[in-house]
Amino acid sequence: MVEGGGVWQYRNDLQIPPTTQGSRVALDQVDSGPFSFYRLEGYWRFAKNHGARVVYAPFKITLNNRPTNDIEFNGQSFSAGEETEYTYQFNSYRLTYFYAFWGHGDDQLNVGFTAKIRDADTIISQAGQKQNYDNVGFVPLLYIEYQKKLGGDWLFHTSFDGLAGGPGRAFDWSFKLRRKISKLATVGLGTRFLEGGADNDKVFSFSLFHYALADIIFHF
Predict the structure, then answer these.
(1) Which of 3, 8, 110, 133 has CB 3.0 to 4.6 Å from 145, enough for a Cys bridge?
(2) What is the pLDDT of residues 117-166, one digit of tens each?
(3) What angle do CA 95, 99, 104 make, to 5 degrees?
């Protein structure tokens, strides 16, 4: 599956360190979007009721403004009123195992677990100085996928990756209306919500993104 479209920042707050030594930076106030994105997914049903999914979902944006207040970010000071560049990256790599509780093809319910690798980085630069905070980590998620035939060649599809616990959470939920255009391809339109973050002794970071998307699935 190839998915793409536009994405808006509804919230993107960052504070490093999450104390009075760090400034709260709201990247959604710098520029809320829309920004372009793409996402690749592959599915393999290796047994009647068992399958796997892989996801490659890169995301990177660059924003600019002149902050009205001084910024303290990861031990570096940035002055108010100076041209400032912010680079925000959040790449996601996922591998899912799922079990098909019922159905195949047009009507199905799949439940499983996703192993997600988070590759995040935030860079702030100004007048020749630069500071960043990167974070690569593993996140286990619950996976649910449901598809229902609506009539004719139309399908309703929703999928969910998510888990909450401790100081953080991650939710990725999509809703799509799809249409089969041939035996080899299905196209769709829909929306996706991506929300999550963490609040611990190293970082405060929470975001909410809204996607308007189109996709195409090739059946082999």
Answers:
(1) 110
(2) 999 999 999 998 999 999 999 999 999 999 999 988 999 999 999 998 87
(3) 110
Dist. CA 220–CA 54, nearest whole Å: 16
Q: Is 38 exposed, middle or buried (0-12, 13-18, 19+ CB in 10 A)?
A: middle
Token pair 């997914």 in the structure block, residue: 41
The answer for residues whose C-beta is within 8 angstroms of residue 215's C-beta and 6 or more apart is: 1, 2, 3, 4, 176, 178, 187, 188, 190
Q: Look up residue 84 and give its amino acid.
A: T
Tens digit of each residue's pLDDT (9 = 90 or more) over 158-200: 999 999 887 889 999 999 999 999 989 999 999 999 999 999 9
141, 116 contact by CB (below 8 A): yes
Are the C-beta atoms of 152 and 183 separated by less than 8 Å? Answer: no
| Contact between 162 and 105 (Cβ < 8 Å) | no
Average pLDDT over residues 84-101: 96
Cβ atoms of 62 and 35 closer than 8 Å: no
In DSSP terms, 173 is beta-bridged to 160, 193
Is residue 137 within 8 A of residue 91, CB to CB? The reply is no
DSSP, collapsed to helix, strand or coil, labels residue 29 as helix
Give Cα separations from 47 to 42, 152, 199, 208 (angstroms).
Answer: 16, 28, 40, 36
Q: Which domains does the chain have, with CATH numbers?
A: 2-218 (2.40.128.90)
User: Residue range 68-83: average pLDDT?
Assistant: 95
pLDDT at 211 over 90: yes
